[in-house]
Structure prediction request, 338 residues.
Amino acid sequence: MIITIKKDTPQQEIDKIVRDFEGRGCSVTLIQGANYNVFGIVGDTASIDEKLVAANKYVDNVQRVAAPYKKANRLFHPEDTVVDVGGVKIGGGEKVAVIGGPCSVETQEQILEIARGIKDAGGTLLRGGAYKPRTSPYAFQGLGSEGIRYLVRARQETGLPIVSEIMSIDKVEEFEEYVDLIQVGARNMQNFDLLKVLGKVKKPVLLKRGLSNTMEEWLMAAEYIMSGGNENVILCERGIRTFEKYTRNTLDLSVIPLMKNKSHLPIVIDPSHATGDWRLVESMSLAAIAAGADGLMIEVHNDPEHAWSDGAESLKIDRFRQVIEKGRRIAQVIGRDL
Ligand code: PEP
Ligand code: MN
Prediction:
């Protein structure tokens, strides 16, 4: 951390600042210049609130040099994290995982038919929402536990590990018992109480990027889970909110190389929620693979025109198969498998 203080700062104030940082176990170096004095603070500065430091009237500027996330930081964990989701490995640069399934679980027959299609097309995991975060309270809210039971049955038949979204702490036990990969949706990315509880569970977590969150906020959300002891976190980019209206969100593919540089966690791209339009899903999926994504999460439905949620962005099974076939060829070009 670098702190610039005003030239006319009284010596006793300088001493106070030094004592304060040394008292927190940091070492302090003071460089006195012609117009400013600069402190270099090294040590564990993660718990120091730079806004509070900047509140001191003698402080002109505070700059963090080290990132505030530690567990998620590539610097302290150079090798890629590989997360095991019910036997499927995500991360590590060899294989691209493909998660497919409906936005919402609707009926047992619906999820079974889709699961069979996903399996047959070469998909690796099955997704399906049982608890749905809907903008309108009048929209379908999900089947709840019944939906989880239908997913479990689809896993029994196909062998595909299952992914589903958790919305509240009181469902953690249910998810820990039945779901292979616990999804934290965009709207809950900063539900810190939920993240803390997920830090204690034994199942991996798929952490979606919030609607308008920076990459650093996203990594800090991962840090909440990891610092609790659960280091099996997979990041999922699902588009961010911008001024653009032709797409539901704006897919930020630059997060793939950036996150690979800053963090060791696997990253998955969700082109369905990112675009809101099935017509754009294939090209964005191929682009994500080319950019080095560790996986895709694609909404797939057997009858998108009548889906109970997100039909407009859902692929029919044949199109999903086509994405996998083309995606495999792109993956091979960059030395990966799908
Ligand atoms: C979903 O995956 O169905 C979902 C609601 O996603 P998001 O949190 O990205 O909107
Ligand atoms: Mn959806």
In short: Residues 159 and 294 are 21 Å apart (CA to CA). The first helix runs from residue 11 to 23. The mean pLDDT is 96.
